[in-house]
Write the structure tokens for this entry.
Amino acid sequence: MSVKVTIIGAGSVVFSLGLVKDLCLMEGLKGSKVCFMDINEERLDIVHKLSVKYAEDLGSDLQFESSLNREESLQDADFVINAATATHNEYFMKRRRELTARYGYFYGRTGMPEYHNLQLMLDVVKDMERICPDAWVLQAGNPVFDGTTLMTRETSIKVCGLCHGHYGYRNIAQTIGLDPDQITWQAPGLNHNIWLTHFYHQSQDAYPILDAWIEDNIESYWKDKQKEEGIPAQMSPAAIHQYQMYGLMPVGDTPRRGGWWYHTDLETRKRWYGGPIGGGDTPEGRDRILKGKEKRFEQMKEAAYDPELRPIALFGDKKTSEQHIPIIDGLVNDNEGQFQVNVRNDGALAGIPDNVAVEVPAIVNKKGIQPLRVQPLPHKIMLECIYPDWLRMERTLEALKQGDKSMLLYGILDNHQTRSYDQAMEVLEALLSIESNAPMANMEDINEHYKWPSHWKLV
């Protein structure tokens, strides 16, 4: 059955082409239309040209169109994949890191609540309510936890947040010598805060295998990895330390976060995530990623305009591991499957209100996306990891809803790197002065939205 899929933020070329490849290879979605939307005309043209060539390579009859106008792109959409970001692109994050470093914050960790990306997500689904109210939005851009919760509370649009961090279970299995395809697993929680509650290999509990491997091999593994490409975050000292603290392995992006004590400075990062640069979540680590993306983009740009260069040579002819297109296929063609999703809780994870988004397994078919009720997480994980993250999210959404500048300040004051009230005030004003590159959001002047409370008196 053919559908129209609109990709917002399609200028993320690698991600968009992966979706196109999956659509080309999905037999049940033949003849579908893909609409690319972005504010960057050059990137939009590149992804469009590459997609046309890719469909030719794969013998697909997909139709493609592009638009610089969001409302236009949403006309007749059945599914909207939102990968757009106002502040999470690498160039902007680099600017923010450099600015906050001048105020004494390592790697931009100020505690400033999110706002531009959340406003952008809300703007998209409110447009959808007017233009394509029956469509699903599959949210790909961060913050998935905050954004999925916000969109489900504020609109009637069907929302599903997606992330690929849960595939960390495969990295764990491979590292300890198990076939990932023989693993049965479950890792519920909140996005970027999920825990491996079930880990079976050929029907046997694999945690004892993991424990024995850690006892016998972890030190040599870390030593060898540091000589090669670096220690993967999933099996880093920080990840193993969190396992020791909580009795369950943190999965995917969870070990990249952890507590503040893993991230105080570069030397601390090296201790917990390995040398020589402390992993990817450091200034040098992100700069390397940025250079890699720039190189990849130039390759794709060349491939878009050179008739001799073909996308299939860059990306192959095998489906990606992304869940977006298989979920669409399940919803449209009743090809039932189980997926890891971020959706409104509604009793799936005990201890969390129904109107908070949780990351849990779900059955997807013609009836919709149906989250499975999972076993409760250990009380310690709830108290020290889940509840604090939930409270932070609630403060962020309240700050956005009320436009309360003092709540932005509180987020910075509550940060472990903040040493004084004056430091917090200075970095707040500095961040508000640079965080204006949100042309896709309707919040052109953030200072018009966020104001001090009427009773506020600056001291």
